[in-house]
Amino acid sequence: MSPVTGSSSPPVAEGTPQDQRLGPRTAAVLVFGSSAAVLVVEIVALRLLAPYLGLTLETSTMVIGIALTAIAFGSWLGGRVADQVDPRRLIGPALGVSGAVVALTPVMLRTTAEWAPAVLLLTAALTILVPGALLSAVTPIVTKLRLTSLAETGTVVGRLSGVGTVGAIVGTVLTGFVLIARLPVSGILIGLGTLLVAGSALAEWRTRGWRSTAALTLVVLAGGLATTVAPGGCDAETRYHCARVVADPDRGSGRTLVLDGVRHSYVDIDDPTLLTFEYVRAIASAVDSAFPEGEPLDAHHLGGGGLTFPRYLAATRPGTRSLVSEIDGGVVRIDRDRLGLSPDGGIDVRVEDGRLGLRRLDAGSHDLVVGDAFGGVSVPWHLTTVEAMREVRRVLDEDGLYVANLIDHGDMAFARAEVATIDAVFEHIAVLGKPSDIGLDPTSTPAGGNLVVLASDRPVDLRATQAALDARETGWKIATDGDLTSWTGTARPLTDDHAPVDQLLQPYSPRSGK
Questions:
Q1: Could you give the maximum distance between any two Cα atoms of the chain, in Å?
Q2: What pTM value is reported for the model?
Q3: 33 FRET partner, CA 20 to 30 A, in 51, 268, 373, 446?
Q4: Could you give the percent of the chain with pLDDT greater than 70?
């Protein structure tokens, strides 16, 4: 009789019979796809919410926090349920229900924003939490199906965790660099929902035999059809904005560019000297007062939008060369296709970040820099700091002028901080605005809106500027010296190291009309 030497068989994991296992490739595809889908939903949700909440630090933080909550809860719940229920019964429903919710997300968010804005945050949270949790549950469920031996636990868990992480990376990169640049966000989510429902049907067939997913398919189709009639649609979904061009019913050549629900620019295609928005008339008043009439300028514009002011300079100062840094190539296409931008009008538009565009310019190369990149619901903070203003000052010649449009409401905390920032860099500064907004009428409550800041290292003729403002019937006044110091108060300059712009700014609300 042979001696007993012990068994070399590995310990067996409970709960997953051999005939219930998923193949390694199927398991990897499920984990990869579900992890990628979570990140697609997270990024696209930011784009859907931007027209209503702004693309701010708070909005981004909220969406990221909800997504992480969904991932944590789904991973915990998926593992717990997989230990109590046959995991083969879970994969198909998790994919199918999440696909249906994802496909309905565009119409749910846009309809809620238009008709029930008070519950927009709750709706947004649910449209991220539900599919995020269900998709995150797939990884522990698949892990359960792959495990048959405790000896391979580390290998299986480690491999699937790595595959899930790679899926999340691919979902992030694919969405940010490819999908959003080429497809409307509603199309992305409906397409993703379709893929998830199809994956649900395939998973059902592979793990349990065929099960009907007709009801979920109908939900996806309903989501697609509803999106076509849902409120809040766009003429174009660019890389950064939901954009529309609205014709002026009172003027055949008038067009308004609306970005994320906010009127951004008014352009008269036939008459570029027609300036409708008060702040644009204020900028024109300042520039016309600072430089001899008709003199061509070398101008750099931070932000393009509808290019109203570059067109004005081209019409009133022939020979002016305007270089525009506009980060959104989709907006530039709208300028060319819908707003009559001519390639021979002396306006050179570069699709680039404004701060990077400044760095590429030679020192002392421009007479004028116009800052008009700030929106009513969000602000590119890196264009607000002392360091950014030093770049502006470097680009200007010794008699150059910086003119910036600011937007703020409430106690104007952001506007005050930005004025303090500009004042820390330039020798001379003045602020143009409604008297109640710039501290010249202390008996009135600030209404908020646009302000225009003038800054230069040479004195600016403010009397001529005020006369030009009056001639254009803006009702605006100018604050400078002691009045401006009093209005700015204790506001601290913004720096690259500390620029809490999103916390300071009280944004414009398209829902309130303020």
A1: 115
A2: 0.81
A3: 51
A4: 88
